[in-house]
């Protein structure tokens, strides 16, 4: 039997080596065909088969100009857009990345990258504000950007706080001030005064802060959990370190768990949750012999139970993160997600031991504190209410339901009345109000498919306005991930502008001529 197996193995190897070059040539042929199609697009001089480097560079410039023109033309037809912004540091260089998002007339979400621009010096609020303003201006977005989403960094927060449009109503009206009208119009804004759109903080980053900072602070300050939390995480860390640094240890872990352990990263909190979840899939009676074999401390039953309860409590947070970071997620999903997150977290209390029984209350309190400005915001309520799959179903309190219904009606009236007619508002208001109430009532009684918005033109416009922002700044982080592929070690001599153009062309491939012909 053993001899027959050896003969089969030898026969397979002989076949493999005989056909190796055939397989390899297929790979080479496939790569060559792709390269040849690119080269054929580049115009060359008569009699020259391959383009020169300058010809190839010129081709890239022309393709970029076409892509940029197509993008600008598309954005010119859009009424509402939102942007996400962040700063990426790589190879001792910093880049400001900005992505743009909008909803078209067929209710499909669209996205593009506007910039991945090199910025020099310190990342102060005024530098950030000026860069975002310049990028928005270069695409003619003034009056169209309903919000810009960033993380919770203090420099971004200050930029949007300082450069918000002046609220004239808050200024003192006791004493009139007379100013030469010509002077402000003829004087350049030397002090860099400009205004930025409304600022939305990244919900995913905020949930990450709750999962790390708030939860960690509670577990380290509570007498019932401090010791077991520290000891269990320390033993998990020892296991991750051993398995990641030793091939033999990694193989031994894989033999027991049938899967490799995941090692948490500092930038993604849910990686810690996933790493701990992978450990507790191994039964304790198999995990501890493995720890003995690897020469690390074993988990006791109390520590193992704590890890299981920790994952139980934190799971709703990971689900919320996955929802809010989705490509198709709209701003209207934020409040229903937070509401569901709080209710599902509190529902876990009865199944927890004394070690973690207080954790759900801590998480819910942190959500209410960190999302205080969002939970009752008019923009968030209208965004959720104009999403057919949510409407008012996620609102438990009847008073809040009536309040949001009134908001919908009021906003719908605003959509019905043209701006120039609003000035002469004498007696048409009751008719417009009745029409708005009927549209809202009919909408709330209709189905939950997105397409039903086509039956309600004013609510459709509201949906496109309030759901244009993304609840997370994940899109710009994905731009940076793509940037890491473009700015590879072998291409580190790319100029900053050439790198930006290559990255934008790759991200905005749907705006190239070939793709446009297909659509």
TrEMBL record:
It comes from the Eukaryota. It holds the Pfam family Dimer_Tnp_hAT. One of its GO terms (molecular function) is protein dimerization activity. Residues 453-508 form the HAT C-terminal dimerisation domain. PANTHER family: TRANSPOSASE, TRANSPOSASE-RELATED. This is HAT C-terminal dimerisation domain-containing protein.
């Amino acid at each position: 039997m053993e001899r027959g197996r050896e003969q089969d193995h030898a026969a397979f190897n002989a076949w493999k080596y005989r056909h190796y070059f055939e397989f390899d040539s297929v790979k080479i042929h496939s790569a060559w065909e792709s390269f040849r199609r690119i080269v054929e697009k580049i115009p060359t001089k008569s009699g020259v088969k391959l383009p020169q480097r300058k010809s190839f560079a010129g081709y890239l410039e022309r393709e970029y100009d076409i892509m940029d023109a197509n993008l600008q033309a598309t954005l010119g037809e859009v009424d509402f857009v939102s942007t996400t912004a962040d700063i990426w540091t790589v190879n001792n260089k910093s880049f400001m990345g900005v992505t743009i998002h909008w909803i078209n007339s067929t209710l499909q979400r669209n996205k593009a990258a506007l910039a991945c621009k090199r910025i020099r010096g310190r990342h102060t609020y005024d530098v950030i504000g000026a860069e975002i303003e310049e990028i928005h201006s270069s695409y003619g977005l003034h009056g169209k950007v309903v919000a810009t989403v960033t993380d919770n960094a203090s420099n971004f927060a200050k930029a949007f706080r300082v450069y918000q449009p002046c609220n004239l109503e808050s200024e003192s009206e006791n004493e009139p001030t007379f100013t030469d009208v010509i002077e402000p119009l003829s004087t350049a804004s030397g002090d860099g005064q400009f205004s930025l759109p409304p600022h939305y903080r990244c919900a995913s980053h905020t949930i990450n802060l709750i999962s790390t900072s708030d939860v960690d602070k509670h577990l380290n300050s509570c007498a019932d959990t401090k010791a077991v939390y520290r000891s269990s995480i320390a033993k998990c860390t020892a296991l991750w370190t051993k398995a990641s640094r030793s091939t033999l240890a990694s193989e031994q872990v894989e033999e027991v768990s049938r899967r490799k352990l995941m090692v948490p990263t500092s930038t993604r909190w849910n990686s810690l949750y996933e790493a701990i979840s992978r450990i507790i899939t191994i039964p304790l009676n198999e995990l501890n012999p493995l720890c003995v074999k690897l020469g690390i401390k074993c988990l006791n039953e109390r520590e193992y139970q704590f890890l299981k309860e920790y994952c139980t409590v934190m799971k709703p947070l990971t689900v919320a993160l996955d929802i809010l970071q989705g490509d198709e997620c709209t701003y209207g999903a934020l409040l229903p997600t937070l509401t569901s997150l709080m209710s599902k977290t509190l529902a876990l209390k009865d199944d927890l031991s004394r070690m973690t029984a207080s954790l759900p209350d801590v998480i819910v309190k942190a959500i209410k504190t960190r999302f205080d400005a969002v939970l009752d915001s008019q923009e968030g309520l209208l965004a959720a209410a104009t999403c057919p799959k949510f409407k008012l179903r996620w609102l438990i309190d009847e008073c809040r339901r009536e309040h949001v219904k009134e908001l919908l009606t009021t906003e719908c009236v605003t959509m019905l009345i043209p701006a120039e007619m609003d000035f002469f508002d004498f007696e048409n208001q009751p008719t417009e109000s009745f029409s708005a109430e009927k549209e809202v009532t009919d909408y709330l009684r209709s189905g939950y498919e997105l397409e039903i918005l086509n039956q309600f033109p004013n609510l459709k416009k509201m949906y496109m306005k309030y759901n244009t922002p993304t609840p997370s700044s994940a899109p710009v982080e994905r731009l940076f991930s793509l940037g890491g592929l473009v700015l590879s070690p072998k291409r580190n001599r790319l100029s900053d502008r050439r790198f930006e153009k290559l990255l934008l062309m790759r991200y905005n491939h749907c705006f190239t001529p070939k793709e446009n012909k297909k659509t």
